[in-house]
Design brief:
This protein starts with a strand and ends with a helix. It has two domains: 93 residues, no CATH class; 237 residues, no CATH class. It is an alpha+beta fold and 430 residues long. Helix 3 packs antiparallel against helix 4. Bound molecules: zinc ion (ZN). Zinc ion (ZN) binds next to loops.
């Protein structure tokens, strides 16, 4: 369903034609920058009493000149839809964001595939509709895992999943509960098949690697408190993903397009803007950078038998994992020789991360183009590089998936500590 409406900007008093496509989300906060003056206009669509639809407006109002049937092209035009990327450009009657998205998924040779993909997108959106209402509860449960009342943590998870988690408060059982909860709640954002492959791969490794070498590694990172702190930092990211849920919807759609390439499609997101999410990317990169320490340790064991035995780079090798930890993100990759774990290179853009961290980023609300300056923002500023807000949200999504995958590695290393190393220690005591 769609509604056509001409909006008047309260700042410049000029008119813009809007076609508002309906999502299934009860409350749909849509926004766009006025094409005349750049001010942010907000339209909230409330369908909680469907079939009735209620609109509320901020910084804009419905124009006195509403279209009779179709827009006549005298005003600039914007499409708005929470669930899909929307195009810039001319108003084409009937070619709604939903229709455009369906066309993009259509394959002449396999017409059924497009339909199935659209259904899949819809299912994920319905899951998001269900979970985002519970975002505060999800945050509370994740916080309880780190608190002192572990019994309460288990009880709340049991209630949430409607599946009894049993009475055991052993660390391995608490961990099992935590990961079951996260896998369930964050399913709409991840690629289930990929997570399963990754977890199987990590589990295999924990059995196949020489036990003394892996034992020394796990012992070192557990004793230093590193593994526990890293897990805590991962857990801080999860609730933020539900806060970003609306702007991630069009990015999820891009999963279904086989030929997605950054900056090839000038498409917009119809909600919030870049400023609300730039720190989230920076924060996930930060956590991911430290997760790479685990990858480096294991890679060293596989390649050279010891977690601190690094490959020589430019004639020198790092003497410890601590030295690796101090390296910048791009330098870290150099020391992961022929890595056993395949990192999605789309996920990390050190230039974007550095530009955000040093505040060398400009955002154009009207075009949704992010211009960033990886080499700093001097007086004689260079042209910098650009990316669309949609591509940026896609990067957050892909990076979150990497973080989630590597969070499973933390789980497996903890199991190794709880079930193998701890048992050995007790065996020695007896
Ligand atoms: Zn305006």
């Amino acid at each position: 369903m769609n509604t056509n409406m001409t909006m008047t900007c309260k700042v410049c008093n000029e008119d813009t034609d809007c076609r508002i496509g309906y999502s299934n989300r009860e409350i749909q906060p849509l926004s766009f920058a006025c094409p005349h003056c750049g001010s942010l206009m907000r339209i909230t669509l409330d369908i909680s009493d469907a079939p009735e639809s209620k609109f509320s407006f901020e910084s804009c109002r419905p124009s006195d000149n509403q279209p009779r049937r179709m827009f006549d092209g005298s005003n600039p035009f914007v499409d708005l839809h929470l669930d899909f990327p929307v195009r810039f450009g001319e108003y084409v009657p009937g070619l709604t964001p939903f229709m455009y998205a369906s066309q993009e998924l259509h394959d002449d040779e396999n017409p059924m595939m497009g339909v199935l993909k659209m259904q899949f997108h819809n299912e994920r959106l319905n899951q998001l509709n269900y979970f985002h209402n519970k975002a505060d509860e999800i945050k509370t449960i994740i916080r309880l895992y780190g608190g002192n009342n572990k019994q309460l943590f288990k009880k709340r998870v049991s209630d949430f999943l409607e599946r009894d988690q049993g009475p055991s408060l052993k660390p391995q059982d608490l961990n099992a509960t935590l990961y079951q909860f996260l896998s369930f709640v964050f399913l709409p954002f991840v690629n289930f098949g990929e997570v399963k492959d990754v977890v199987d791969g990590f589990s295999d490794l924990s059995v196949k690697l020489p036990k003394p070498a892996l034992g020394r590694f796990v012992d070192a990172i557990v004793k230093a408190g590193f593994l526990a702190n890293l897990q805590k930092d991962c857990l801080k990211i999860y609730p933020e993903i539900y806060h970003a849920e609306m702007a991630l919807r069009p990015a999820l759609f891009l999963d279904l397009k086989g030929d997605y390439e950054k900056a090839k499609t000038a498409a917009r997101i119809s909600t919030k803007d870049f400023q609300s999410y730039k720190d989230l990317y920076k924060d996930i990169v930060e956590v991911f950078g430290r997760q790479l320490i685990l990858i480096a340790g294991i890679n060293n064991i596989i390649k050279r038998g010891d977690f601190e035995d690094f490959k020589k780079v430019d004639g020198g090798a790092l003497s410890s994992l601590e030295k690796f930890a101090a390296k910048t993100l791009s330098d870290k990759f150099k020391y992961l020789d022929d890595c056993f774990y395949n990192i999605d290179k789309d996920a990390v853009d050190a230039g974007v991360r550095n530009s955000i961290a040093h505040n060398n980023v400009h955002y154009d609300e009207v075009t949704q183009l992010i211009r960033y300056y990886p080499n700093g923002g001097g007086i004689s500023q260079t042209a910098g590089e650009t990316m669309y807000f949609l591509d940026f949200m896609r990067m957050i999504l892909v990076l979150f998936r990497e973080m989630h995958n590597l969070h499973h590695l933390i789980k497996i290393l903890f199991y190794f500590e709880f079930l193998i190393l701890e048992k050995d220690r007790q065996g020695r005591k007896e």
